[in-house]
Design a protein that fits this description.
Length: 282
Amino acid sequence: MSKAKKRSAAKQRRPIELHGPELDKEPMGGKEYARELKRLHVELVKLQLWVQAARRRIIVVFEGRDAAGKGGVIKAITERVSPRVFRVVALPAPTERQKTQMFIQRYVEHFPAGGEIILFDRSWYNRAGVEHVMGYCTGEEYERFLRGAPAVEREVIEQGIQLIKYWFEVSEKEQTRRFKQRIDDGRKIWKLSPMDLESHRRWYDYSRARDAMLAHTDTDVSPWHVVRSNDKRRARLNCIRHLLSLIPYEEVPRERVVLPKRQKSHGYVEPRYPYRVIPEIF
């Protein structure tokens, strides 16, 4: 698509506010959240069985602000499904060898085979975000990525892989609150890295990087879907519901499961063995 056509298509879409007090709703209650998530989990299981039966290949990319809730929605998606079908890929920093490869090469080796859904917790879009902002790639490498990503994604889709991309957006105030919570909560301190602190300091550098990424890679063939995530519970439910709406899955017919009767003991007696039973403190 030419730049002129991209601008024309963008103008046809109604501008949407990402932040603002008028967008904030009352936090969703735990009971309502649990009820809706249970219903969506049933649908995710149906999706899993269909993907296996139809041998479909699906990639879901999760990107966004630090502390915007990407990990939480991935955890919610995978909570009740098979890790052999819904595979989470969260790659560490590239090795010296990987730095000499084509940039997308180390991601391609994790692409799905038939019957798999790959959830990328961060992806090749690291180059458009943290690598660009923190100076881990050259300006030429960054520009080459922005130019080349749409073509690569078009080829992936033409090969029969469904590619779905999510960007999680959180407000400045809420991101600060979550970072402070991580500092004060011993269960979450591991989630606070030096890179997170830099992302907090460089809010507007990351805003500019986001804007450039969307301008170059939000295409009709491979669009970005933005999740406003100030309310984590609502964001998780909205994202899962939207994900299910994008995949034309159907319920796979199955035979009714009947629990068989247990066999007879035929004289079996539990042995008097000194089992190493763990202390029952609770």
